[in-house]
Amino acid sequence: MTLKGLIIFLVIGAVAGWIAGHIMRGGGFGLVGDIVVGVIGALIGGWLFGLLGIAVGGLIGSLIAAVVGAIILLALLRLIKRA
Length: 83
Known about the structure:
The chain is mostly helical. Helix content is 83%, strand content 0%. The protein is built from three helices and no strands.
């Protein structure tokens, strides 16, 4: 991965984490927290979309997959926190 690719990956992660935090009504987690949630969400979303046979391509597709994955991650974390 090039430096440019890494920066794009981190920016997508930050935006996805921020969007997911607002969708789940939890607000943001700060820049680093949003990046972590978004990056892990991108991995979850990419894996899930791959299982479902949904191809994601480009910046918008990557962002959508990352947001979906981050929402799933936040929902799971909330379930674990309640238990």
